[in-house]
Amino acid sequence: MNEKLARLPLKYFDSRTHGETLSRVVNDVDNISSTLQQSLTQFITAFVTLIGVIVMMLSISPLMTLIVVVTLPISLIAIRQITMRSQKHFRSMQQSIGELNGHVEEMFTGHAVVKAFGRERQSVGRFREVNDRLYDASWRAQFISGTIMPIMNVVGNLGYVFVAVAGGILVMRKAITIGDVQAFISYSKQFTMPITQTAQIANIIQSTIASAERVFELLDEPEEVAEPAHTAEISRPKGDVRFEHVKFGYKEDAPLIEDMNIDVKSGQTVAIVGPTGAGKTTLINLLMRFYEVNGGRITIDGTDINQMKRGHLRGMFGMVLQDTWLFNGTIRDNIAYGRLGATDEEVVEAAKAAYADHFIRTLPEGYDTVLNEEATNISQGQKQLLTIARAILADPAILILDEATSSVDTRTEIHIQQAMNELMKGRTCFVIAHRLSTIRDADLILVMNKGSVIEQGTHEQLLARGGFYADLYESQFSGRQRLRHSG
Ligand SMILES: Nc1ncnc2c1ncn2[C@@H]1O[C@H](COP(=O)(O)OP(=O)(O)OP(=O)(O)O)[C@@H](O)[C@H]1O
Ligand SMILES: [Mg+2]
């Protein structure tokens, strides 16, 4: 399942809660494995006992054995009828567990927000609602499958009665001795026992089947488009990036990018600006092949990115995303994540370049400070500096900064920019920024709106044009003026 998760496209994770996926990987797999460990041995014991007992019974009286064996299909029919009715409840039980997990996960991640908006009661209410559904499905499932046991007992006892009657007649006819009948009866008890035992664990088996269905559902999800058989490799990427008539939409029926053409030369710094929701991040998602284009092609150094292995393609990029991702571990480990086998000196070098070194040294534990899972023990801007250091360490051919410095103060931002300029000499760099003052020096500015590039050029060219960019720039500039006046 873990391997499968690695191969699933991002689209899969976009469309469901993490808790739901988590529940499948943790609860359902656990359910299956514990059933296999406990119930399977029970099964084997029951089966072997059954065979032994049948042989013994046959040796005493084939006629009476026939009577006992005839009860077997009756039991099977009864079990089948019951499990058919309870299975759907087991299914909705596992589903509710998944939903419940999703809710709890979400509420814990958004803990502060839930508290800030005073939504504790609603959150608990929603939990109750799902939990009630879980309760309902569970007791129905358990109740229905719980009737298997008594029914098996009835059938078993019926068999017992017939054996006693038939045995009595046989003894009267002096066909067998009374001792044989007695022995037979205890064997027939042993015959029904394993079946009753199996019936007893029927509910466990049923919930396991429900779990297995969920596991296979995940395993059957369509994966990322398979890698082509003959993959192209760029051993020394220069960083020429071209978008040729690219078409894309997150959903089939809602195209976002219609016909995008961009030509970026190696070593250029390209700034992408535009209003919120214009499709800037989408552009990067396509470039990194997090999503597949619906039409047209994207090339790097003239090679279609669809012809490359995803791992190879992504290896050429270093990226700092809009939402920072740090894991539970030391600051050193988090930065070193950028490159396998980075030395301590290299980590410190990268941190210096990202202007993170200073704040790290002021922490009591320095580079060995352990970040918690959500990295709430450092500030948002500091998180960004760490992710920038990580990308610098990766030393990629193409660097992508998506609002990478949005949370740091303007002065640090300019410092980082300068350090970047030094670092990115001769490499291609994509910068997405809302603060236009920081991207003035870019070689090419792409102005995006509603999924298409509406203007491109340098800062001066775009200003002279007096179009969308000029407007945007003016509004930021005058906005600051106004602030200064009121301040
Ligand atoms: N995973 C997704 N599934 C469906 N639609 C999406 C998804 N991600 C983004 N969108 C939609 O695509 C459009 C472009 O989003 P995108 O993230 O590229 O904007 P952006 O230019 O990066 O904005 P921002 O400046 O706020 O980061 C938006 O209208 C958004 O609603
Ligand atoms: Mg974005």
TrEMBL record:
Source organism of this protein record: Paenibacillus cisolokensis
Lineage: Bacteria, Bacillati, Bacillota, Bacilli, Bacillales
ABC transmembrane type-1 domain residues: 1-207
Protein's membrane topology: Multi-pass membrane protein
PANTHER family cross-referenced by the UniProt entry: ATP-BINDING CASSETTE SUB-FAMILY B, FATTY ACID ABC TRANSPORTER ATP-BINDING_PERMEASE PROTEIN
Listed name of the protein: ABC transporter
Chain ranges passing through the membrane: 40-60, 150-172
Matches recorded under Pfam families: ABC_membrane, ABC_tran
ABC transporter domain residues: 241-475
Location of this chain's protein in the cell: Cell membrane
